Amino acid sequence: MVTVLLTNLVTWTLTYGPHGYAMQKPWQRFVTRTVIGQWLGRTFLWLFGFLWIDTHGRRASFREAQVTLICPHSSIFDCFIVGVYAQGGYLSLKENLNLPLIGSLLCASETIWVDEKKNKDGVQQELCRRVSSNESWQPMVIFPEGTVHSARSLVEFRLGAFKYGVPVQPVYLRLPVDPGWTIWSYHHSMFAVVLHTLSVLYHPIDVHYLPVYSPSDEEKANPQLFSSNVRAKIAERMQVEVSDHGRPDMDLTGLALKLGLPYSAGNLEYGIMRDQLQLNYQTLKTLMKRFATFDTNKDGFLTLDDLTVRLKWPLEEDATQFFALCDTARRGKITFREYCIAYADLIRPYESDEDFINLAYDKVVQNHAITPFFCGSRC
After folding, report:
1. 222-225 contacts: CB < 8 A, separation 24 or more?
2. Cβ neighbour number for residue 262 with a 10 Å cutoff
3. Is 91 helix (H, G, I), strand (E, B) or coil?
4. SS3 label, residue 171
């Protein structure tokens, strides 16, 4: 408690006065690095069981790498570890301002705030200004995954850190084999994470600084390629797999819970949906809302009865044909993932309107026939 109060007092002193994207003064940077980072931050981690943290490699300077990439992002304690071992300017969601202690610590640093509900042009301009500056900024510290997850793989990186073609230094956190309750997800609240973390006496964590990665001309022109190559390099050193999951999967999981569906309904591997089926996030949201209206018992599956009752199809043969084309696993029920694939393969080729769903199904209901919509389908 004393550590928390002292940290809040110091951060309030640092942030008192006008706010903005100004560079920290030398005395502010000294207090942030030494008092908050090395003293109070390390004491805070020690109290939560992070007694000894091994570091491997060397932290690059701003001249060597303008961006520091931290992964995997699996715990609320990552922020404190970064505050001690990878200090710099941060890119953070504006909603994190409301988090106890974390919000104060971010305010005391050279943080760029991201409001996902507003235009991000200002954020991109400020990020570009810093990474291309000749001034003595600190490296921008970014969690490229943009979400928390189990740390058993590396999920898709968001492209913001790779758009400017500057050298980056990857840093990965080696967690225990079974991190358990340090992982923060939809299964439990932040309070539960803190409580269970305190119940464990020792959490071993290693911080690995990897060599600076300088992009090629091809990677500078293609941020997606740049991010994929960096992610592959980190995964190779960590000896973990890469995953097609990403931040949209987390958002879709949250939407599924709001709609009364199981959280697993949002676990789609968004990268596959986007790249192979050309389904963007907004289309998937629309599909999920429609799926939830059909799934009357909210178990995450659609049955033939769900479709016939909801769509009021009078011809049982047509409904059975439609259901069989969607039920690729032949289980007698359709998951949301299969529902999305059915749309991409069977309906969308015949509809150019983005708001396809009501239009396509209305035609099916009016015509009492499904076959014309599937003629020439890949299924």
Report:
1. 223/159, 223/162, 223/163, 224/159, 224/162
2. 16
3. strand
4. strand
Q: Annotate 179-223 with DSSP letters as a single string.
A: -GGG--STTS-HHHHHHHHHTSS---EEEEEPPPBPPPHHHHH-H
Q: What is the phi/psi pair of residue 170, to 5°?
A: -75, 140
Query: Contact 153/243 with Cβ under 8 angstroms?
Result: yes
- Paired tokens of 88: 């710099």
CA–CA dist 87, 24 (Å, integer): 13
How many other β-carbons are positioned within 10 Å of the β-carbon of residue 66?
25
In the structure encoding, which two tokens stand for residue 172, read together? 């990965």
Condensed to tens digits (0 to 9), the pLDDT of residues 58-88 reads 989 888 999 999 988 877 778 778 878 877 7
Q: What is the C-alpha separation between 370 and 319, in angstroms, rounded? A: 8
How much is the mean pLDDT over the chain? 76
pLDDT in tens, 167-224: 999 999 887 655 555 555 555 666 777 777 777 778 788 899 999 999 999 999 999 9
Q: Are 37 and 7 in contact (CB under 8 A)?
A: no
For the chain, the straight-line distance linking the first and the last C-alpha, in angstroms and rounded, comes to 61
Q: Tell me the two tokens of residue 362.
A: 């209305």
Q: Where are the alpha helices (DSSP H) in the chain?
A: 2-15, 26-30, 42-47, 78-85, 102-107, 121-131, 190-198, 217-221, 223-238, 247-258, 270-275, 281-294, 304-311, 316-326, 336-342, 356-367, 371-374
pTM to 2 decimal places:
0.72
How many residues are listed for the chain in this entry? Answer: 379
